[in-house]
Specification:
Blueprint lengths: L1 H24 L6 E8 L5 E5 L2 H10 L2 E4 L10 E7 L5 E7 L5 E5 L2 E5 L24 E4 L5 E3 L3 E7 L5 E3 L12 E4 L6 E5 L5 E7 L5 E6 L4 E2 L6 E11 L6 E13 L4 E3 L4 E3 L3 E7 L7 E5 L9 E3 L2 E7 L7 E9 L5 E8 L5 E4 L3 H7 L2 H11 L23 E4 L4 E4 L2 E6 L3 E4 L5 E3 L4 E9 L3 E9 L2 E11 L6 E2 L4 E5 L9 E8 L2 E3 L2 H4 L9 H5 L2
Parallel strand pairs: 12-18, 20-26, 27-29
Antiparallel strand pairs: 1-2, 1-4, 3-7, 4-5, 5-6, 6-7, 8-9, 8-13, 10-11, 10-18, 13-16, 14-15, 14-17, 17-18, 19-21, 21-24, 22-25, 23-24, 25-26, 28-31, 29-30, 31-38, 32-37, 33-34, 33-36, 34-35, 35-37, 35-38, 38-39
Length: 534
Amino acid sequence: MKKHLLRYIFVLLLLTLTGLFYFAATPPAFLVDGMTVTHTATEESLFYPLDHRQASSLLHDMSGEPRDRMPPDLDPTYDITLHLKGVAERHYSLSSTTDLSLYIKKASQIYRLAEVLEFFYSHPAFSRIYPYAVPPEASLTGLDEAAALSYSEIAWEYQQQNSTWVTHDPSSSETFSPQDYPLSNPDTSLFLNIDPVPDTIRLQITDPAGSVRYDDVLDSQELPLFPFNGRHEYHLTLNWEDSHQPYRGTASTHFGIEMDFPLTFEPPGPVALQGEMLTFRFRHVPEDAELVLQENVTGGDLPLYPMEDGYVAYLPTHYGNTPGEYKLSYGLQGEPLTESTLTLLPRNFQIQYLTIDPSVAAATRNEEATAMSARYFTPSRNKSAPERYYTEDFVIPVSGRLTTEFGETRYVNNAPTSYRHSGLDIAAATGTPVVAVNRGRVVLAMELITQGNTVVIDHGQGLFSVYFHMDELSTAADRIVERGETIGTVGTTGFSTGPHLHFTMSYYRHNLEPGHFLVGEPITYQNAVDHLAP
């Protein structure tokens, strides 16, 4: 009897120890009071009470097949502490992969959890197992130091495994404070870094004067720069709207780029061709700086025009400039000057033999015609607006056939002339529309004896475009005309042998090769069909 009693006590003790071990390793749901979940990356820790149903779902999800190890380089995503009623706490670690596979470590065992996990995939404590549960972080690179951006406004949703969309709830303590970032290298490329990349990035840039310099949708993550000193305000609006992605949302932010670049000189050259108008730029000029520019190209004092946070000077060259080397000296008043060399290359100007009716020549080339030109045409290019009227590229004034190049020497009725051809002659049918090559102010619109119906447009900072021999005029003096606006029609008025447009570009009264403005190279008989043909 005593022997049976001892056996009974031993079995009971064994069952009790087995039960205690079971409860200790995997507690039943009725013992679970709640859980504390700590996100390992942010160290955010929160307590969540659990009812019997939630606890049962959690313990069900924590079952799985034991594994010897997790995938390599997989760190825990969460630390989980279960709080039990009357029993010690139980500690676990949960790891997630980019494909949402979950691994849990309990005691010394590692388990890969099941494919469908009701609790872990839906409870808000574990939202960060989803790669897009929180809005993507944004930063700028290319600055003197990398900068993290915060959002002034954000609306973000992500999709759970069960296709439910969950709205991200930003912390009420998050406050937006716009930042200013210094930039001292004008050769910087500025990039917005954000993953996933928004489907659209709209950017508006305001310059230090308050003018909008850019307002458009970007086609890349590179942000445009306007490299002149002062604070530029950047406003970004981001949209994620691809219906095939498990996330969607909008965000906006704004920040300042404070540009502080050193004074730089950009001389033209080292090589140029007769007929080019060269530019000399002084960039990032400090206030009250006294600039010096000395040159022997034009033989006169060149005006400096304000441009952004600096100045620009124009050096016109034409057929009257002797090919060879020219010296440029520049710097600040009172300091040693820097020198550079400009080599002006010769151009092979054509010779043209022109036959014209003697009666036309007599009627259009006489003292009255000369006096009329001196009174109206010559002074029309003496004064120019200090600012540029135009911001876009130049356009062709009329399509047609090139009949005379810039700079040609002419023989009229076998008699040599004392002048060079000041522009391009473009033959076209009478009545063909002639357009302004760029935005500007009309300073002359009238009929002249030699030039015929004439228009002169001031484009600002000494640059003019000139149109001769038109049949009709459709503009008037003091009007602002837009790039591509019709100003008249092709004709054969004045000293002309047939319907054509004589077109000139000039820096004040220094005639220039028009092709450099229109197409980036001289327009010649060899390439005219590519540039002027309809």
